[in-house]
């Protein structure tokens, strides 16, 4: 299958104001599809150090992928030394079976935040930056591929990243997660994202670039199966009867709430789960909001979207604090969701960061808001 390219676009706007509140800004808009024949990529190991493995994937190359303005990069062979900008792209590569080729990452996953099946391998990846990787360290890393989650954002609020000429001089090919990097750009496709096709295409895209297309298709098939089951279960529920929903980013701060808008991947997760994001009509991915806005929307369900604290007890405490704030804050005490105790404890990682876990989040939300139709263990 030849990579297919659609064209997301230019430069983000107000995302930087809320980037520190959410681990990575992500929304939906895809490019590229996986490469054909003779690929490898089943398990969590094998690839970087195996000549046979790299020979097996060679048939799928070259692969062409585009950035947010449609500029193409040709990847001639499977990369052997990969650096990722954050935990989102790192987790995708781990799941694709290319984790042993990752030599460093920025914005590393917190302790206990990676799924158990990839956590041990992920913990061994060197951390090149607690936040954005410093420019000099990235260029001197020895990488042959850099997977960039943030795109045109200047290193997530830090110093400007390398130019394309500097990447080329260092021998580093630069590719993006387009479902993440392009969503906040002024020319991105308008309207809310209502499915996970962009995330799925990014998985296929990385599968093509790393020669693990077969594994990418397995991951995407699993996501489509899980979301498809929920879609079928909710087929008889009219749109107007689906409950309203507010994702409360507790870690983003309580003074001014963050609106998770229609372009964000969380909007697709919420929609597929049979709920209505109260800020779906906001034509952005994230936007600073106000409690007056939230009160006016009066959501029927509220997600307590805290980041994993690296341990069950610490994370539970964070959920408790988020709920206590909403119950005690005068502006939110009277909200329908608060009055009825309609809280969903679901981490921001699975909801707002592009990845395989988005499909699991769909089921978890659906099982709460439509408990009579969807079971959590379904």
Q: Report the order of strands and helices.
A: HHEEEHEHEHEHEHHHEEHEEHEHHEHH
- Whole-number average pLDDT? 84
Tell me the fraction of residues in β-strands, as a range: 5-15%
Can you identify the CATH class of the largest domain? Alpha Beta
Q: How would you characterize the largest beta sheet? A: 5 strands, parallel
The total domain count is 2
The name of the CATH topology of the largest domain is Rossmann fold
Helical coverage, percent range = 25-40%
Structure in words:
It is a single chain. The chain is of the alpha/beta class and 378 residues long. The protein folds into two domains: 16-222, Nitrogenase molybdenum iron protein domain (Rossmann fold, 3-Layer(aba) Sandwich), CATH 3.40.50; 237-369, Rossmann fold (3-Layer(aba) Sandwich), CATH 3.40.50. The chain has 15 helices and 13 strands. It has helices spanning 16-19, 51-57, 87-96, 116-123, 135-139, 164-169, 178-181, 197-210, 213-233, 265-272, 291-297, 312-328, 336-340, 348-352, 357-369; strands at 63-66, 72-75, 82-84, 102-106, 127-129, 145-148, 173-176, 244-248, 258-260, 276-277, 286-288, 301-304, 343-345. Strands 5-4-3-6-7 form a five-stranded parallel beta sheet. Strands 10-8-12-13 form a four-stranded parallel beta sheet. Strands 1-2 form a two-stranded antiparallel sheet. Helix 8 runs antiparallel to helix 9 (213-233) and helix 9 packs parallel to helix 15 (357-369). The longest helix is centred in the middle third of the chain and has 21 residues, at 213-233. The radius of gyration is 20 Å and the shape is globular. It starts with 15 loop residues before the first helix and ends in a 9-residue tail after the last helix. 53% of the residues are buried.
């Amino acid at each position: 299958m030849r990579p297919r390219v659609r064209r997301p676009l230019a430069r983000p706007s107000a995302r930087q104001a809320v980037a520190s509140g959410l681990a990575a800004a992500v929304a939906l808009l895809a490019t590229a599809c996986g490469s054909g024949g003779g690929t490898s990529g089943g398990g969590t190991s094998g690839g970087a150090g195996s000549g046979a493995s790299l020979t097996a994937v060679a048939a799928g190359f070259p692969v062409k992928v585009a950035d947010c303005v449609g500029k193409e990069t040709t990847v001639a062979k499977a990369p052997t030394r990969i650096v990722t900008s954050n935990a989102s792209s790192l987790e995708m590569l781990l799941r694709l079976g290319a984790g042993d080729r990752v030599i460093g990452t920025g914005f590393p996953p917190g302790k206990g935040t990676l799924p158990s099946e990839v956590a041990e391998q992920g913990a061994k990846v060197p951390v090149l930056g607690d936040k954005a990787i410093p420019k000099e360290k990235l260029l001197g890393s020895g990488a042959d591929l850099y997977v960039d989650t943030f795109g045109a954002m200047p290193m997530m609020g830090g110093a400007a990243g390398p130019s394309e000429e500097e990447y080329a001089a260092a021998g580093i090919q630069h590719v993006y997660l387009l479902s993440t990097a392009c969503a906040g750009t002024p020319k991105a496709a308008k309207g809310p994202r209502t499915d996970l096709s962009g995330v799925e295409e990014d998985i296929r895209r990385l599968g093509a670039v790393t020669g693990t297309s077969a594994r990418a298709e397995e991951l995407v098939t699993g996501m489509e199966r899980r979301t498809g089951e929920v879609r079928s279960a909710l087929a008889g529920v009219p749109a107007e009867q689906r409950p309203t929903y507010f994702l409360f980013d507790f870690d983003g701060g309580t003074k001014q709430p963050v609106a998770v808008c229609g372009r964000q991947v969380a909007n697709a997760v919420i929609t597929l789960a049979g709920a209505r994001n109260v800020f779906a009509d906001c034509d952005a991915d994230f936007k600073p909001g106000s409690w007056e806005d939230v009160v006016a929307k009066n959501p029927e369900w509220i997600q307590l979207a805290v980041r994993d604290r690296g341990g069950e007890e610490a994370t539970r405490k964070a959920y408790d604090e988020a709920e206590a704030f909403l119950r005690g804050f005068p502006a939110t005490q009277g909200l329908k969701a608060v009055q009825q105790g309609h809280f969903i404890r679901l981490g921001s990682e699975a909801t707002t960061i592009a990845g395989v876990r988005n499909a699991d989040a769909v089921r978890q939300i659906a099982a709460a808001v439509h408990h009579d139709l969807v079971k959590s263990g379904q």
